[in-house]
Amino acid sequence: MKKFLDLGLQPLANSYLNSNSLRLKEKKFRLVIGFNPKSYLVSILNTVPKEKMFNERYPYKSSESKTMKKSFKDLSKNIKKRFNPSLVLEIGSNDGTFIKNFNKSKIIGVEPCKNLARITIKNGYTTFSEYWDTSLAKKISKKKKIDLIYSANTLSHIKNFSEIFKAVNLSLSEKGILILEDPSLLECIKNVAYDQFYCEHLYVFSAIALKKILNKYNLEIFDIENVNTHGGSNRYYIKNKKNKFFKINSKVQKNINLEKKFGLHKFNTYKKFANKVSSSRKKLNKIFDKIKSENKKVIGYGATAKSCTVLNYCKIGSKKIDFFYDTTSYKIGKFLPGSKIKIKKYKKLSIKDVGYVFLGAWNFKSEIFKKEKNYIRQGGKFITHIPSPKII
Ligand code: JHZ
């Protein structure tokens, strides 16, 4: 692993503080990112035990955005049309935003965070509140093999690939496929979206790296879709090499060529990225300093895990951002880790209350701008750091 970026000491991104824990010293770890020139994998170097992050208090719910609900709904329709699976399984089913588009007898959820698994169980969906591994795969697929395994924004959170892919191979039917959806490294590097790196995101994948990993498990990518969720993601359609039911689509090579053209296989690309990250921090702080010198108020919108990286790396705290609005009930009344900025229940923006809003959930910019069109019409401004810090 060759290090290229040091994002400093960071707390656990989804460990929101309450008024008691606010007074205690937070545990922090050094967020350093590296590139492996052999495997092309980009990953964080210091990892945190999974149980510390994915437990019965996991705050993130995919249902908090219309964009995600629509994306999962559209994908479910396409899956049914294109593959007609008789049994589907989702690894990391969260609060059921994807699985609810399927008939209860045709889908299984796997979700280690107990608070989330409880939601889908309550809604009548078979859900295993465990980590996906070979023993769970054997248990689930004993009676019936699975035709389609889907997993969005989960593989990047899992250290042990070997267990994951062995479990996939064990449980897929003869025609079975795996669909993985994760933020695209190409988009992350192009957009200087360094906040895609935090304790939970052990990796940000490129097609060139994923191809090499999959090859070890006799798996191959047969199609890739570029989707706009989470700042630009890739949806990889994967099959075992023995599965001859699907041909390899030309989009696979096209994506690989684009990544190589951009230099994702070269260390120098990442060094340049690190320089851009450092200038991004300077620019963002300049914007905040200017606004503060005019005695104007700034609030935040979307207390995301990504915000944790930005705020802690740029040393932006409650002196610069008064509070964050968020719609997630679990986060309301708590404080962002590290920066200790209070999170309040979302209220429609109005120019009477605030003139500048830092866009923590920049990945939902279109959805948020639609929702806040009155504020924008009134002359309200947003501050964004992606792709480069500016007021819009
Ligand atoms: P959002 C999480 O990251 C964590 P985060 C995780 N590690 C991951 O990989 C990605 O998700 C997928 C709020 N919001 O999706 C809701 C509003 O308040 O960018 C959320 O708290 N109003 C699993 O946390 C946050 O913003 C709105 O109108 O970086 C969005 O979080 C909208 C649209 C969202 O993920």
Q: Your description of this structure?
A:
The chain is of the alpha/beta class. It is built from twelve helices and 16 strands. It has helices at residues 50-53, 66-83, 114-122, 134-141, 161-171, 185-190, 207-215, 250-262, 267-293, 305-313, 365-371, 373-377; strands spanning 2-10, 29-35, 42-44, 88-91, 107-110, 126-128, 146-152, 172-183, 219-227, 233-240, 298-301, 323-326, 342-345, 356-359, 381-384, 390-391. It has a seven-stranded mixed sheet with strand order 6-5-4-7-8-10-9, sandwiched between helices. Strands 13-12-11-14-15-16 form a six-stranded mixed sheet, with helices on one face. Helix 4 (134-141) packs parallel to helix 5 (161-171). The two termini are 38 Å apart. It binds ligand JHZ. Ligand JHZ binds next to helix 10, strand 12 and helix 11.
Features:
single chain, 392 residues, alpha/beta, seven-stranded mixed sheet, globular, binds ligand JHZ
